[in-house]
Design goal:
- This protein is mainly beta and about 140 residues long.
- Helix content is about 5%, strand content about 50%.
- The protein contains one helix and five strands, in the order βββαββ.
- Strands 1-2-3-5-4 form a five-stranded mixed beta barrel.
- The C terminus is likely disordered.
């Protein structure tokens, strides 16, 4: 029996840069950065945020569809697989970039609540003491 490997990444966050380009073959490629933030309260009661940026790559028809629907600030849920791309820069130095090759995505209809616009000493809406927006129910809030 052969071992079945799993390489699945799920990300729900907000879009950063959205760049559509075409390869010489004519295939579309969309390069999208997605931000996810983890918030926590320290022993003194002060809130902290850790934002992680994910490099996400869409190909062909999916790239063109995503380019029409996504823009900077859009909330998105995507599923894909991890891939490390390696190349040599023009100066001859080796480069690496960890990417998520996207298989599917969904735009999340999301509007900021009054709770998210609260004063600085209040917990953020996506912090551990809050509930997720109704349209994000079921996402892991860890």
């Amino acid at each position: 029996m052969r071992l079945q490997y799993i390489n699945r990444h799920e990300v729900a966050g907000f879009c950063g840069n959205v760049e559509l380009r075409y390869m010489p073959s004519g295939d579309a490629v969309l390069d999208l950065s997605v931000a996810t933030t983890n918030s926590w309260k320290d022993k003194e009661g002060k809130w902290h945020d850790d934002t992680e940026w994910h490099s996400c790559i869409f190909y062909r028809k999916l790239a063109e569809e995503a380019a029409k629907e996504l823009q900077k600030g859009s909330a998105v849920y995507l599923v894909g697989r991890a891939h490390t791309r390696e190349w040599t820069a023009k100066d001859g130095s080796p480069r690496k970039r960890k990417e998520i090759i996207v298989d599917s995505f969904h735009v999340i209809a999301y509007t900021r609540s009054d709770k998210e616009r609260a004063p600085d000493d209040a917990p953020p809406a996506d912090g551990p003491e809050s509930t997720p927006p109704a349209n994000m129910a079921g996402f892991d809030q860890a």
